[in-house]
Design brief:
Shape of chain A: globular
Number of domains of chain A: 1
Largest interface: A-B, 33 and 31 residues
CATH topology of chain A: Jelly Rolls
CATH architecture of chain A: Sandwich
Structural class of chain A: alpha+beta
Helix content of chain A: 25-40%
Radius of gyration of chain A: 15 Å
CATH superfamily of chain A: YjbQ-like
Oligomer: homotrimer
CATH class of chain A: Mainly Beta
Largest sheet of chain A: 5 strands, antiparallel
Strand order of the largest sheet of chain A: 1-8-3-5-6
């Protein structure tokens, strides 16, 4: 397993980690197969979406806020339940094919760490599936 | 593949299955790698979220109900379409890293079977990814 | 890796690709293990849900439209941000167990390509996890 850290700067933020995951694939020596990307947190997640126009993840962020407003109502005492809900909507685990030692993504795809309760330092764990 | 059953008691319920999945990892003899957790149902799912405060999954349950009200409107004749929608939002499949024969989860993470149309007896299928 | 194409006819459409994924499992010669299904797009996704009553995915489609209205408001200039949001809600990646050369799905489960910005020709990539 190869782990790396991501430091976020805002409460909600989508950080493009594609090149970091590619680096992990190289550290693992994985040439062909499938790589597993895992976020060991409950108020952050991982997703694949467009990497070209930053407006796309800004719209994703805003849409999730409309679907799951920070204000609640909530039972959980810490007040960050919206972050937990968004984490489950995006998920903590995804896989990507690898060919010739490279992540095989679609032309427009990038891998994002989804911060929902920052700023914090987050971990990403990458392993051969 | 190792399968186990979970009996739920309410229409919607989040059941912590972490120790059952750990038992499956041991039954499979998996020491290092990635384990796949699969729910063979269309009105239940699987997610990772906080295991410490039961208020978190209570809030997740309530937030999903606000996003996808049971009352609809729906076309599907059985009247349980909200459960089908929630199942796709959470997903039927996720992976978790394994190291030294143990699930490698984050400190706060637990694996939940998500019941959306209970009470029922559900199955969980665990296999080496 | 085995790839196939799916042509969609409407803006939003859920296409049952179970038999195509089964064909890919056979092309790969995979007998036992886990297969990874990946959609290399950012306005389409993949999910598992009921295959028997087409009303179920019609309800899923309508529920996603209520949660993420096409009209926005959005920042992304192309006007298809709702499709990007829905793609992340469903996900681009899922795994399914394989036994004896057959997808091992639950009785009611089917695998769907989720089109959110069609009509288009989409790809699905299937590989051994």
């Amino acid at each position: 397993m190869h782990a790396f850290r991501v430091t976020t700067e805002r409460r909600t933020q989508f950080v493009d980690i594609t090149s970091r995951v590619q680096g992990a694939v190289e550290s693992l020596g994985l040439r062909e197969g499938v790589v597993h990307v895992f976020v060991p947190h409950t108020t952050a997640g991982v997703t694949i979406n467009e990497g070209a126009d930053p407006g796309v993840v800004a719209d994703l962020d805003a849409a999730l806020e409309r679907m799951v407003p920070w204000a609640g109502p909530w039972r959980h005492g810490e007040g960050n339940s919206a972050a937990h809900v968004k984490a489950s909507l995006m998920g903590a685990s995804l896989c990507v094919p690898v060919e010739g030692g490279r992540l095989r993504l679609g032309v427009w795809q990038a891998i994002y760490l989804c911060e929902f309760d920052g700023p914090r330092t987050r971990e990403v764990w990458v392993s051969k599936a």
